[in-house]
Amino acid sequence: MVHDLMLQRRQVFQGLIALSAVGGLAACGGAEEGSSGQIAGAVAPGVFTGEEMALISAVAQTIIPKTDTAGAVQAGVPETLQSLATDWGDADFQQYWKSGLAALGSALTSETGAAFTQLSPSEREAVLSAFDTKVFSGEVDNGFYRDFKATVVQAYYMSEPGATEELAYEPVPGEWIGCVPLSDFPKTWAT
Fold it and tell me: How many domains in the chain?
């Protein structure tokens, strides 16, 4: 069933490009993280419940926290994921994400029994870092977390803050020198 859910790269990019405008608009009124570590903000209607959106926001903000540039929540990543699943995902895709989020929420429950969304930002970072290490070392098999993390990163860098503040776009990288003597480049190779 997982192979049926694997999307072609082109389809994923088409969906994310179509939703990049939604992410950009969502960033205009991004949610703020309070001093207690709670992620505040309205929940966009869609496939995911308020609890699932809170988990998405908390994990995404832990993966890409706010520094001198916008974090995942401020860039509208949770809203983009909601729109992606609601407007673009079929029933199998939606079920994969909903069951994956439920399993992820259980896996990220702290040793004290507190839900991931109730932890402070530093506690979230410690719990997620330990889980991330287990997943990517192969100790824990959680393909959904790998997909989730990759989608969060893609959605972030396709948002306006991710693309303009975090990445350095240079339309013309370096200076154009139209005529250069070959003696300036002693070793050349061409086919």
Answer: 1
